[in-house]
Write a structure and sequence with these properties.
The chain is α/β, with parallel strands linked by helices and about 270 residues long. It has two domains: about 210 residues, 2-enoyl-CoA Hydratase, Chain A, domain 1 (Alpha-Beta Complex); about 45 residues, Lyase 2-enoyl-coa Hydratase, Chain  A, domain 2 (Orthogonal Bundle). The protein is built from eleven helices and nine strands. The strands form two sheets. A six-stranded mixed β-sheet has the order 1-2-3-4-6-9, with helices on both faces. Strand 1 and strand 2 form a beta hairpin. The longest helix has 24 residues. The chain is globular. The two termini are about 15 Å apart.
Length: about 270
Amino acid sequence: MNTPEFSTLTVTLVEHVAEVRLNRPDKSNAMNEAMWQEIRQAFEWVDATPEARVAILSGEGKNFCAGIDLAMLASIQQQIAHVDGARSREALRRLILDLQDCLSSIERCRKPVIAAIQGACVGGALDLVSCCDMRYAAGDAVFSIKEIDLGMVADVGTLQRLPRLIGEGMTRELAYTGRTVGADEAARLGLINSNFGDFSRLTAEVRAIAQTIAAKSTLAIRGTKDVLNFSRDHSVADGLNYVAGWNAAMLLSSDLSESIVAQREKRAPRFDD
């Protein structure tokens, strides 16, 4: 099927696995204005496309992503300029909220999103991958909350999502110091699921994981992501109540029937998109 075309991304769809690849390798995939918007458009497409059951987020070239494009950062003052300081500050707030929403589109996407990371993953790139369901890296991957070295507070998701991944104390250390974390340490901290060492192995392993997910019940996968996201942000009691409501509505599906029949016939189940 046809996939959308973008100026800063490439999107492919092969065997139910979508791949969204950052494609500004000459700029280390730094996130300019177009890329922010196109990330949201790409994951809205993944969400709305039944044939796309899971997505991989990757970066072209030596580095996954160097964070926000500094040229974009430098232009913000001009974008929000107004004779009234209050209106200028409101415009900046709206801009920040929009950038947050561009990345949150990954979290909103009903399909699992897997980040495959090589080289630099710093600043806004860390905000980006923290929205993903899982993160895997090559041995040369490095991570940093770089905003502190620019004299600014990270404001598009890292400070909200990272503590849930690596804990409060370690997040504070990285946010206050801006120090670099290598792939081995990132795996120990739980920032990434695995360090696959070689880049070619990273690519192959992430593709295999995505294909395993794509073979599962699409309805069950979407429900599992929804319930996990809800439960993360609510009490255990609220989470249990939520999943009871989900399964009351969706448990008795054609996917459940197909799974039972496939087990009886000793074959792989075949699920609808």
